[in-house]
Design brief:
2 copies of one chain form a homodimer.
Chain A (H helix, E strand, L loop, with lengths): L14 H9 L2 H12 L2 E2 H9 L8 H13 L3 E6 L5 E6 L1 H19 L1 H15 L7 H6 L1
Antiparallel strand pairs in A: 1-3, 2-3
The first copy, chain A, binds a DNA duplex through α4.
Chain lengths: 141, 141
DNA sequence: CGGTATCCCGTCCGATACTG
DNA sequence: CAGTATCGGACGGGATACCG
C-alpha cells in the first residue's frame, strides 16, 4: 500500500517532480479543479469528475488520488464519525494555490482548442501518403 | 502508430482534455519546460530531460512525446536534409504559451516543496499505527 | 544522428468482494 | 456511504534491431 500517484516513485528523482506528477496526474488535475469550486463529498466528487466525459474515475483511483494529494498537504479530509459515514474533501491553502495554476492551464487548453485542432488537421494532411487518383479510377469504368 | 500521449484516447471525451493530458504528460511537461529555454536537437533534448534524475526518457518515448506535441501545434520540428541528419525542435507561439504555464506550475512545486514535505511528515506520523514499547522489550533482556 | 518497427515485461487501473 | 484487499487484463514504455 502507501500508494503514490504515478509510475516511477520507487526510483530516486528530485522530489518536486513527484509532487508535480501528483498534481498533473490524470485524476489529480480534475480533482483539484473541482475542489476549487467548493468542497465535495466522496461520491459527489466522483460524479463531478465523471461529468467530464470519457471513461470516468473508479472509486479506487479516486481514493488513491485523494490520499496522495492529502499526504502532500494539498487536500483536507474531514471524516465525520457518523453512520452512514460522511467525508468531506476540500483544498488547503497550499492546494488552492496549486489548483489555481492547474485550472489556468486547463482553461488555456479550452480557449486554444481551435488552434490545436487546426494544427492537427494541417499535420494529418501533410502526412497523408498520397491517396489521390482513386475516384479517377472509378470514373473510368 | 499515430501515437497519442496517454491512455484513454480511444474513448470519447471533451477534446481539450486530451490536449491537457498531452501537455501534462510525464515527458510532455519536461520537454515543454526545456524548450522554453532554447531550441534543442533530439539527443541534446534527451540529455537535458534525463538530467532531471530518476530514470530518464527513452528514445521511443521522447519521439512519441514530440510527435504528439507537434501534431497539437505546440512544437515545431525542423528537419535539415543533411548527412548526418540534424533535427531541431522549438516551441511555436502556441507552445510557448502552454510551456509558460507549465513552467509556472513546476516552479510552484519547487518553491513549495518545503511545505509539502512537512505535510507529508505530519501525515505519516498521524498514521503510524502505534510502534512504541519496542526498545523497552529489548532493554528487558 | 534521428528515427521506425517489433517484442515483451512491469505497472496502472478497473472489476469484484468484503468491512465499519 | 466510504472505503480496503485482491485479482487480472490492458497498456505504457524499455530493449533491441534495423533504415535513411
Amino acid at each position: 500500500m502507501a500508494v503514490s500517484g504515478k509510475s516511477g516513485d520507487s526510483e530516486e528523482m528530485c522530489p518536486y517532480r513527484l509532487v508535480l506528477e501528483h498534481v498533473t496526474s490524470r485524476w489529480g488535475v480534475l480533482v483539484l479543479i473541482e475542489l476549487l469550486e467548493r468542497p465535495y463529498r466522496f461520491s459527489e466528487l466522483r460524479r463531478a469528475v465523471n461529468a467530464y466525459g470519457g471513461r470516468g474515475v473508479s472509486e479506487k483511483m479516486l481514493t488513491q488520488t485523494l490520499q496522495t494529494l492529502e499526504r502532500d498537504g494539498l487536500v483536507h479530509r474531514d471524516a465525520k464519525p457518523v453512520i452512514p459515514p460522511r467525508v468531506d474533501y476540500s483544498l488547503t491553502g497550499l492546494g488552492c494555490e496549486a489548483a489555481e495554476r492547474v485550472r489556468g492551464l486547463a482553461q488555456w487548453t479550452e480557449d486554444r482548442m481551435g488552434d490545436v485542432e487546426r494544427a492537427r488537421a494541417a499535420y494529418d494532411e501533410r502526412r497523408r501518403p498520397h491517396e489521390e487518383a482513386r475516384e479517377i479510377q472509378s470514373r473510368a469504368s
